[in-house]
Structure formats: structure tokens, C-alpha cells
Amino acid sequence: MRLSEISIRRPVFAWMLMTSLMFFGGIAYLRLGVSQLPDVTFPVLTVVVTWPGADPTVLEHEVVDPLEEVLISVHGIKNVESTLRQGVARIKLEFYMDRDMDAALQEAYAKIQSVKLPTDADRPRIYKINQDENPILWLSLAWDRPYKDLIRYVDLNVRDKFLLIPGVGDIQLGGWADRNLRVWVDREKLNRWQLSILDIQNTLASQHVQVPSGYLEGSENEYSVRFMGEARSPQELAQIPITVRGDISTLPVTGVGGGVVWSAPLHIGDVAQVEDGLMDMRRLSRRDGKQALSLGIQKLRGYNEIEVAHRVRQVVQELNKTLPPGMDIKISYDASRFTELAVRETEFTVVLSGIITAVVCLLFLASINSTLNVIFAIPTSILGTFLVIYFMGFTLNYFTLLALSLAMGIVVDDAIMVLENIVRHFHMGKNSTQAALDGTGQIRFAAMATTLSIVAVFAPVLFVGGVIGRFLFQFGITICSAILLSLLEALTFTPMRCAQFLRHAPDGAFAKRVHGLFDRFAQAYARLLQPCLKHPWLIITSSGILFLFSLTLFPKLHTELAPTQDVGMILLRVHTPVGSSLQYTAQKIKALEDFLRAQPYVDKVLTAVGGYYGGETNEANMFITLVPREKRTVTQTEAMERIRTEVKKDKELRVLAIDLSQAALSTKHGANLELSLQGSDYEVLRHKSQEIMRRMEQTGLFVDMDTDFRYGVSEVHLIPDREKANLSNVSMLSIAQTVGSAIGGMRQGQYTHEQDIRRYDVRLRLVPSQWSHPEDVVRLNVWSAYAGEPIPLQKLAHIELARGLVTVTRENRRRAITLYANVKPGVSQGKAMDRALHICQEVLPAGYQVRPTGISQTTQESFAAFPMTLGLGFVVAYMVLAAQFNSFLHPVTIFVALPFSLTGSLLALYLTGHSLNLYSGIGMILLMGIAKKNSILLVDFFNTSRAQGFSLEQAILQGARVRLRPILMTSLATVAGAIPPALGLGPGAEVRVPLAVVVIGGVSVATFFTLFVVPCVYRVLVRWERRPPGISPIEETPEALEHEDFAASSEGWD
Questions:
Q1: What are 569's strand-pairing partners?
Q2: Taking a C-beta distance cutoff of 8 angstroms, is the pair 817, 806 a contact?
Q3: How far is CA 240 from CA 203, 213, 243, in A?
Q4: Looking at the keywords, is tRNA-binding present (predicted)?
Q5: Tens-place pLDDT, residues 1003-1047
Q6: Fold entry, domain 3-36+339-507+524-561+860-1043
Q7: Model-level pTM?
């Protein structure tokens, strides 16, 4: 017994099945997460090593090269990229999408532990997060007390509260400096006591210690033994005695007895100032022009962005109630707001699509009861799909919601076909139960064929790799689930409801007009089709020429990864000249801040000078929040152009504007164009990159051009005289350690704060006033065992001023330079990238190569994936249809509609001015499935009519007339479902419109050509196929056609 027969004969079972789908689907909807894009986990690990004072070249040789040597062998690794800056090395490990990141983390950690790094370098830290990702929120804190107190308070009372929030992965820090116990050594006092700074270093190493010393085991108790030699406060550390090599007679006298002078011991506090302070300030942050501390909340992959942001906002509200007087915390930047608005707007679009689809069905069916029967497919299919989305671990995002919006017009198609066929059998005089059984049985094959043909199109998505493959996967699973559930609904619930409620009832005036209109339209269509069937090759040839002509629209369309969305936020990355101090950069940025705050379209400005995770003092990140879109007269793109115009007034500023709506699609800088130049000679790369940028600028296609190559920072090179050093018995290591401790601020252990019980570094350094000029380096003393006294370093070495590298970038163990730029507004991103690659190939010598990275790489992968997906979809769909029709030729006839769906989509994009992008490409893949539905309806009826004994021409004419109404209904229902997203209403409309426009244009044009071209192609191809046994042509009679006419009755159903 078939499922449809079970539903008809056991209606309570069918009602319970339908109710359970909707009930549990509703529960699943309430539990679904929300995000702007599918929560795709970029398989990235980041290894960070800090080594204060180490320049990029030293880091490259001593830290990065040995780490890369072991890390590149980690299983599943795709790319290794290292960025080296003063004191910080970051190694980003990118894996293939199918790699288990937990296992990769463990393997990478084990590899790192096997590498021996310099003792002065901090231990490597490995993060299961891409630190290039932009935070979803930026918080800013200000206090009317000293900045040091603000950092201490945040460190003890604020930061951990946000890290404990489920879904928060890490916190980027703007204007932050770690707490340290600073030992500021006075060089003049050292010279007085004939000490070098290494004496203080050795004193701390030997006198400031705390080590476990075993345990004592008695007969009843056991005791652990710990040596408590660490100072517990700055005051205690200042009282640690040091060894004096100078004349003890100059020491302060504490008492005289027996003619002997007793001298008090010399303490660290006598030659240095000890304070509970901060590391050197290399970063600062400002909120609306005033100094503040900023916290960037990064979300862990796999967590709901909206929920994480909501929890953060709750914590902010709670903290503001408990903060000390004069301190406040504000949300200065919130990317989740746009995500929430855009997703909610897309949900509204889904509902509106369902309403418009219902109205279209009502206009065609001219019966409220019939319409209700059809649109029951919408809640059943959509709510059931929420259940699938929930168990697949998807979120409500652009791709899943757009799939549901477009599915609104598709899920009713099967119900329309089944209902129309049941009603037709009912009008033949059968009772409602028999009409439901016969009508469903007759249409079952066509319904299954049309549904499976759509599902087959998305099967190749499983073979598409990368982030685009994951996005397509969620879209495909969602729409296929909705369509398969609509098939279940059409073959079970629809016939069940027809068997229960289908009744003879006279049509009203409106229904009679609708039926009369379709009768006349069907007759006109049949009259037009007859001459076409007499000259099939003329129709086929002319249609083919029109299709080929439409392909000329391809080069005229702009191509890009995704349309720029007006998210109401702009991220600027600004650079001042290489070598600029923190204060100079802050001064330059202040003028830009003042300009932005004076603009009516700007709401908030949050600035972080010095970057994050070891950024340079000549760079700044500016997070600009615009006023709501309805309250400003300029778009985000126009605002960005005005800002660029202002920046150009200062020749020392370079700016890169990040499109935050696309930043999540890559793991790099976020620019529209990113190219990695690789080669053996770094100097050649430097010159060639400058030439490439110059030639790109001449094209007028790009803005915000820059590279990550930074050269020209001032360096002081200390050149030792080895012979003099050897004669004085001074080693190179001793000189290096002396300079490193005095200038570099070396870490000399840790101490535990007596109040907050936390461990902080102890750092030794000269007082700031004694290391502000290059000559201060050689004014240090180094101990000479030969002379028995300190020797001025200027006797053993001299200084040279030079220019060095600020940043070194490596890719797969080779030095590289990344060139990045934004495409000028109004310029095709694809054409601009092709032009840039062409320039690179012309400029780079043999042995050097260029590779797209970031968004450029994602764009290439996406446009490479679509042809493969379309091709594989074509093959899979052909195999499915060939198996269903048991014919090699009928699928060819069905596929005739596909080229015209492409024609319609290209024409729609061209006329509306939209680009060919990720979303419009998904629309074309979808068209591969839905454009075949009408052809399947026709070919199936043609075959059925021929099997009943009709001649070829009779079968074609009759099938075309009978199937005209369901074809128009299903096509217009699909178009109706796509109208709301095509209207471009609300946040996120920029990505919804291209997909909807493609579907509307493709379905409309394909439907028109299907009605005329498919019958002609069928007439031609069927002659090549052997006639099935038992079929012989019969004469066409009016009675035969009337018997099968779909609109013979004017009665409805109640």
C-alpha cells in the first residue's frame, strides 16, 4: 500500500504526522542560533611568541624558522604564514576544511614543545582562533584616575568576567600594557659603586627565588617544603642586598665600635627605583577623542553571535552598576546589531514570500478552500525544515533563510500539481476518494521527477571544498529539505485533505471569470503552438540563436565575491611613516578623529593606536559607527569616499578601508584585493612590489593600495671590537646581556602580588631619561674581570645608524610581500583582479610567483566552484531523469529549458545593474533544478498520452493544453516567492536582491521558452526513439481531447 493510499484511508494518521512536523519544527525554530553567515569554522591555529627587544630578523632566525620546520609537517596543513614584528612573531597555520582542529591543536602543541627557543623569549602560545578576525563588539572604559589604575582595575575585576562568557574566545586589547614590577636602574649610581647592570640582574636571579624543596614524611603527617625567597612587594624587593665591588669606605656608616667602621649593605633600592607599574606603553586607545581602554570581544566559532553579544551587553549593564565613581564602560562598536537586524529582516521576507505565494495561488485557483489546501504545504515544509536545520547544527543565516524564502514558491508546486490533477479526475465523475487515489497515482511520477531533479542539482555541492562549499552546503540542504518535505506533503496530506473535503459546488462569479480566462488563454496557446510544431527546426534554431546572443552579456556584468552591504560601520587601518613614535601617530590620528566627529553621518569613533598583538607604533585602527541608515543622507560607500578625500590631504597618512560585510569570508586583511608575491630575493620583491603598485595605480581601478612590507625604521647597530673585548676579558655575551637588560627591558623572573595573588613579570631597565639617544647605548659599563672594574662600553664597541625592516612576512618558509588594495567603487572586482594578476606576471622575473590570498583567493575559489557544480549537477540530474524516464533522449528534451533560464538570469542581472557574485551564482544553481520542472510536466504527459494511444501531435497538443495551468501556477508561485527578497527592503538587502533577481528572470524566461521549444524538441527527438510496444497512432477526435481537458468543468471544491 502506497503512502498516499495510507493517508487517504487513514486520515487521522496523516493529520498526526503533519501536526508533529509542524509542532516539533516550531520548537526547533525557537532553539536555532542566529548569525549573518553560516558558522563556518576556518581551520586556523595561531602561534604567538613574544621576545621583547628582538627585531624581525632575529625572530626569523632564532624563533620562526625552527618552529616552522616542525609545524609544516603537521597533518592536514594547507598553508603556513608568519608575520614578524619588533618583539613579536605570529605563525598562522591554515588547514584543509575537513581537518579535525582539536587533533591538529594537540599535534601542533607537541611539535612546539620539541623546539628549543632562546631563554629570553617567552613560551609560545597557541590559539584555536584566528586573531585576524574582527571582534563582534568593542567595549571602552574610561576613568578620571591615572591610566595605570584603570588597567589594574580592568585586569583584576573586568577582563575575566567577559572571558568567562560562553562563546567568547579571546579579547583584543586597545591601549593595554601588562602589569609589571619595574626596576628602574640609575646608570650614574651604578658607576659610583663600580657596578654594571648585570650585577643587578645576577642579584635578582640569585636572591629573588622561590622553589619547591620536597616534602617531609612523618609517622602521621606529611609536610611540603617550599623555599620562600621571593620578594612579596616592591618595597621588599628594593631591600635585597647586592655585592659591592667598589671602595667600601664610601658606604654609609651605621655604627663605630673598637675603631672599626661598619658599613651598611648596598640594596637594590639604593641604585634603582622599584615600582608596581606597567610595561612600556606601545599602544593607546581613545573613545570619541578621549583616552580610554578598549576591549574587543572575539566570538568562538560555533557559537551564536547574537546570543554572545546579548550576554556581553548584560555583563556591561551589571558592571556599570558596580564600577567605582568616575569610571564607565560603553559599547563603542557592535557588529552584532546589523547581523540581528539583517536576519530578522530576512525572516520577515520569508513570511512575506509565503503571503504573496498564497495570493497567487488564490488568483489561479479562484477558491479559498483550494488555496488553503495548497498553502498547507508552506507551514508543513518550512517548519519541518527547521527541524532538519536544527539537527544539522545550522543557524538562521543569510543562506538558510534565503533558501527558505525562495522555497516558498517552490514547495507549493507539488501540491498544485497534485490538487489540479485530483480536481480534474473529480470532474470526470469520480467520488472524492477515488479521484484522490487516481489523481495522485497519475501525477506521482511527475512530482517525484521534478523534486528529485532539484535535489540532484545540489548533490555535487558535497564535492565543493573551501568556505564556499560550506555555504553552498547549508543553502542546498535547507532548500532540498523543504522541497522533499513538500513532496511528502503533496503525496500524503494533499490527497488526504482532498478525499475529506472535495465537494461539488457551483463556482462563484470570480471563479467563472478565472476559468474562462484560462480557457481562452489555453486556446490561444494551442493555436500558437500548432504552427510551431509544423516548423520545429525554425523554433529550435531561432531560440538557440537568442541563447547564444544572451551569452554576450557575460563580459558586461561586474563580478565580485559579494555585494557591499551598508552595515553602518567602517573599519579604517591607518599608517603614518615608518618609524613614527606612538605620540606622533596619535597626534596625526587626532586630526582625523576631529574631522570624523564633526560629520553628521558619524555616531561614534573608537581609535586604537599601536594595533594589537604587537602592532607597530605607526599604525592605528579606527572603528567608525555611522548613524542609522534612515537618519543619514549618505550611504556607507559615499561616507568612505569622503573620508578618503580627507585622508589624502595629509600626505603622511595611508589608509585601508575594510568592508566588514565581507571580512568574514577570509582569514586575511579584509581588502578586496590581496596578492602574495614570493621569491628568493627579498630586495627584488621589494622593488617589484613598488613597480606593481605604480602600474596598478595608473589603471585607475584601485584605491587604498599598500603592502605589508615596512622598511626604513631607524636602527642602532652596536659593533663590538673583538680584539679589545678579548684583551679586557669581556665576552660578547656579556656585552649583549648588558645592552639587552639596560635598553631592552629584560624579564628577570616573576613575583606574586601580596594583595591580588597574581603573578607578574619583573623587568629590569635603565631609567627612561638615560636611554633616549643612540649615544646612550655606549655609555653603559660592562664588568672586566681583567681590569677588576667596570669598563665603559664605548671603549669596546661603537654604534652605527642604519635602516631596518619593520615587518617580515613569510609564506610556507619563504619570504613574501603581500600587496593589498580595494577596488574602486563601480569597478568590477573580477576584472580588477585579472588586471592586477596580469601586471604581476609582466613585472615579476622568472622564479618569482604571485598567489591570490584572502578575499581574492575566496573569489577565485567561488568562481571556480560554480562551473564545476553546474556541470556535475547537470550530469547527476541527467542520470536521475534517465533512470526515471527509462530513456536517454527524454532528459535531453527536459534540459532544453536550462539554457533559457541562464538567458533570463543574465538579462535580469544586466537590466537591474547587479553583479555576478556568490549569491547570484547560487541562484543560477537553483535554476538548474526548478527550470526543469515545467519540462518534466510536459514530457511526462506527452509520454502518458502516447501510451494511451494518441498520435505524437495529439499527445503534444493535449499535453501542452492540460499542463498549461499547473505550469503557469507553479512558475508564478516561484516568482511570487522571490519578489519580497527582490524588493531590496531593510538591512542586508544587498545580498538578497541578486539571488532573487536571478530566480525571477530565469524562471520567467525559461517558462516562456519551455511552452514552445520543449514541444518542438520533443517532436524532433522522439522520432529517434523506438516507439514503446503496444502504441499505435490514432486519429485525433474532439471527443478525445474534451475527455482530457483540464478546464472542462466550472465547478469548484468545498
A1: 625
A2: no
A3: 8, 22, 10
A4: no
A5: 999 999 999 999 999 998 887 765 444 443 333 333 333 334 433
A6: Multidrug efflux transporter AcrB transmembrane fold (1.20.1640)
A7: 0.79
